[in-house]
Queue: 3 jobs
Job 1
Amino acid sequence: MTQHPRLRRTVLALGAAALAVALAACSSTASGESTASAGTRTVSTAEGEVTVPAHPQRIVSVHAWTTESLLDMDVTPVGVENSGEQYVPTRYVPAWKKIDKIAEGGTVDLEKIAALKPDLIVGVDVPYLKDVYAKLSTIAPTAFAPFSESATFQDYPKYTAAFADTGAAYEALKKKYDDRIAELRSTYASQLATVKWDVIQGGFDAGNFWIYSTGSPVGGVLESLGATFASATAGTKSGDTQSVSYERTDLLTDADAIIYYVNNDGTPANNIDKLFALPGYQSLPAVTGGHAVGTPDFLPGSYSDGLGLLDSIEKALKTFS
């Protein structure tokens, strides 16, 4: 399976991992969470049941997705991963820059984490973190959200909220996102019923771009809006990507709208500018009609990322009368 670019920033040579446990509903009173004592709770994690502080005060986050959700819920970790500022969504950069960095390039610094005296360590059960789980657990209770290529971005805030005891903040974020979905479905009902979408990005294969499936992060959000898909995205196996030559712009001919990945500064990501330079791409109906839109939230990891993606989709929908 082709790697997602945002996973590359934290997982490096990450392969597909199986979902370790069934996804549980997560809030301060969610199922899968029970009181172990007056000062602790038991939460469901990728590594089984873990006893964590009832109200953790010093949280270390070793993965970007848990970091983003903590910041979304007004919790500032004492330590976070360093995935490179250029890969941190701009909405989080000011807070992220001020926090001690405890992991870089897939390497977790156990001594730095111990020095921060955390009462809880959170993350996602990707392979390089799974490898150090036992060592992290000797420092503080460690709770990882299950990782799966088929999981949606909403799964990670759910788990993070359960781990950090931020259920009320999580519910507010979820409602904000759900309300935004409902708003767009109502406002752009006619466009969503007729516009066919393709989802692409530059990829990391020389001379190729990637076509994403309906089960991709962007595809899943479009599906929740009731959108339909053009043949390239519709024909890609769910949860997978197609890596195709830049010369195969013809695959995108029946798309009414195209959405693609851009860097935080708005520039095309992962060499997709090479695709954009081709006459075949420039003559595509979606492009000549002004219906191609880039988004830095192509691979959302939090509800704020999801809301950013919805803003990008709305930008494209507005181009249809």
Job 2
Amino acid sequence: MYYQIFLVIYLIIALVLVGFILLQQGKGADMGASFGAGSSATIFGSSGSGNFMTKTTTILATCFFLISLVLGNLTAQRTKATDEWNNLGGAEQVESATPASDVPVSDDKKENDVPN
């Protein structure tokens, strides 16, 4: 149960982390703004997003790595299900039984038995 919860949280954090990384401004973007490239007109202002985005990315990355360790530990402690195909020699021999039927089966068919 905990494994699935951690896995869903892990995937959500991974997607949000990728989004925050893609939204961040590069180090060289400030140089273009000084020459009038217009990249300073962002949502958070010219430098207002730096602290918020950096701190959020750091928190998300830390959570991502911690949940990675927890998921790795939970996976290592799980018992592995044995694969049926690995041990074909030890498989039980199952005899095929003919199905019991009250109606006798005959190979001879009469012409008037066939519907028209």
Job 3
Amino acid sequence: MSKPKLYVLDTGTMKMDKNYLIAMHNPASIDNPNPPGEFIEFPVYAVLIDHPEGKILFDTGCNPEGMGKNGRWPETVQKLFPAFQDESCYLINRLEQLKVSPKDIKYVVASHLHLDHAGCLELFTNATIIVHDLELANVMKQYAMTKDMGAYIWADVHAWIKNDLKWRTITEEEDEVELVSGVKILNFGPGHAYGMLGLHVILPGKGGIILASDAVYTKENYGPPVKLPGILYDSIGFSKTVEKIRRYAKKTNSEVWFGHDAEQFKTFIKSTEGYYE
């Protein structure tokens, strides 16, 4: 049987105020009453696991049609969280570079459904889309009630429904779910979003990797001490999740890959350079 390979797909970058990444990182004081804002750039990426039991995609980046005058994203979102991609960074092109078509993907694990993680879900009509039950339920409720969905994009959700995607949800009671041999879905629960999922991948050569996504934005959030992000649904849940990941990483002797850590991302082998096995 062939060995699994893990590819890091660079799907571009975004920018936002650093306070969204690390909440209150530069509070005002008597000595510094007007601290300057920082508009920082950070990576957006997906992970492809080419496994003998089927190809697995973790997250899907931003939709290429998000930005611009007639873009999917509302103007306020485009100004607060602009995305930057050339065509080579589009997810479908990153896959094509590896001679992989969307129809070849068996499972897509969506860590959550924010614009920079679920923007291309609509492409995967053959796959089973796996997401946290609370995340899907709350996002669909928002979709039904308003077009102003914050970090969720109404047009993205509309495309998922139009394309009749096949969903599987992970319930609150499911802590760890084996997807295929050596790959487990980790239920992180509420925190950064309504319901977060991660993956634990064991590779014969590399060892264990925890794909944390935005359950932990960066090493600075990870700490210790834990530092909350500014985009947050459940602050207690976020802190509990970080400690859960820390314990799990120690127990399994695994690396933690953060969702948007620019320095860590520089160290990754990208899909254009090679893979992990």
